[in-house]
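Input sequence (211 aa), recorded before submission:
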Amino acid sequence: MLAVSTAGAGAVQNTAQTASGQQPPVTGRGAAPTTPGAAAPPAPTTAVLTRSFTAPVGLVFNTVRPERVEQFERLLAEVQTALAASKNPTTQALAKGWRFYKAAEAGPGGTIYFVFVIEPVVAGEDYSLGKVLVEAFPDPVKLQEVWALYTGSVTGGGSLLNLTPVSATVVPAKAPAAAPATAPAPGAPAPATPPAPRTPPDSDPTRTPAR
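Predicted structure, token format:
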């Protein structure tokens, strides 16, 4: 899953700012100019703000403008393709537990919720969107084209949650205790013993039937 929230999707420097103030992925055009004949600088891959989780399960909520849902879904298609095609073992490990969902319920102000579920979380790894895009698109022009799908569709930074499973222990209910026997008060007569039931003659097994 990709943490598409504006707070964690940036990966490299660029003069433009995203909807939440996060810097978009750096392209080769954003690097310092080089002198003729000098070696080109390596492609920047350091994230401005990482998206990592501390619990076994992670969630990221993203609010998308209703008129830009198709645009955001195109972004997700690019990201899912990048995750599936990656040869990087770390990215492959992230992709195994990364899932993308669209909520049926509307978000605040009529926005559309897109929820990213990460289970299981790879501890200590960065789930930021920019990291995935920089790895997948070495061409700076294509990278900025894909990044624009994101910045033009979200309304702000995404919300991140760390979830820990709850193991409920069921305690069996105890049977009610029997009421203690009440001793008769001093001087009170003992309770009468009920008489034994009388056996009708016809039910006496030793009786010989009359002829």
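Checked by second reader. The CA atoms of residues 9 and 204 lie 96 Å apart.
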